[in-house]
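Q: Second attempt. The first request was missing the SMILES, so the protein and flavin-adenine dinucleotide are both included now.
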Amino acid sequence: MHLREMYRKGQLGLSFELYPPKDSAGDKALFRAAEKLKDHRPVFFSCTYGAGGTTRERTLEICVQLQRDCGVPATSHFTCVGSSKNELIEWLSQAKQSGIKNIMTLRGDVSPSAQIRPDGLKHANELVSLIKEHFPDLGIGVAGYPEKHVEAPDLQTDLDNLKRKVDAGADAVFTQLFFENRNFFTFFEKYQKAGIKVPLIPGIMPITEFDRIKRMTAMCGAHFPPDLCSRLEAVKDDKEAQLNIGIEHSAKQCEELIAKGVPGIHFYALNLSKACRGVLKAIGR
Ligand SMILES: Cc1cc2nc3c(=O)[nH]c(=O)nc-3n(C[C@H](O)[C@H](O)[C@H](O)COP(=O)(O)OP(=O)(O)OC[C@H]3O[C@@H](n4cnc5c(N)ncnc54)[C@H](O)[C@@H]3O)c2cc1C
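A: Got both inputs this time. The predicted holo structure:
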């Protein structure tokens, strides 16, 4: 199904983001989690792509297997950093031949091993244009940042850049994870004022382990509320208690987001099912 058709009025489009594991034990865990998550009738699973092409084949293999074994559409993430235009077109062609209908279209983090190339693309909006030019049938999701992207000087500049991606042809925007809904709602107001009309899907990451989430939020720049931090700090030696606090917090976030009418929720599932299932059970989904 094309991304454009996934968010229907009166329905909540759930999606779960997974990543390519490093070994066969990880693969088994991923597919065990996917089997359980599919009970919640997601509109898609997605699988991340290593910036610079580190998971070029693995990402596609996992998407193909998710579609075949779980019967759920799989969106492949794809980054342009570190690749030439020709390499990008070649991979997209392979993805299309493999039965992938939707691409989460990203630049990726620039790093010593993933640089912008002179024969490549600088930003995700250029990758959106490339897809529209060569593979107009593919659905396109792009990233949005309610608390602004770490490199952007301010939220408005980042939003102007987000609009370039949508104007280039993106079908939906998926947000970076956030823990405070008011930041999402403020962003959504500005998003609407900027005239962006495609669905904005909030990204929620249920906390599973305090240390892990601290590392991830530091990397992506998401604000971590001090009261949530203190509650987790108080149970730092008890993983079960951390999981329960995480579920409770994400469930509250989701309830409020749904009450305000979001078209879907994109869960950063991290190849685990327990936390997402806990949240969905708590909100009766
Ligand atoms: C839902 C989601 C999924 C993700 N999946 C992956 C993944 O699978 N693999 C991975 O490596 N990373 C992933 N990321 C992280 C992402 O790659 C990084 O945040 C990266 O640094 C930026 O990617 P982008 O697509 O937002 O880039 P861009 O949209 O290019 O934005 C990057 C920066 O450049 C600015 N900018 C954008 N366009 C222009 C322009 N035309 N001119 C000037 N400035 C501009 C923006 O304001 C921003 O500061 C994901 C992020 C999200 C939210």
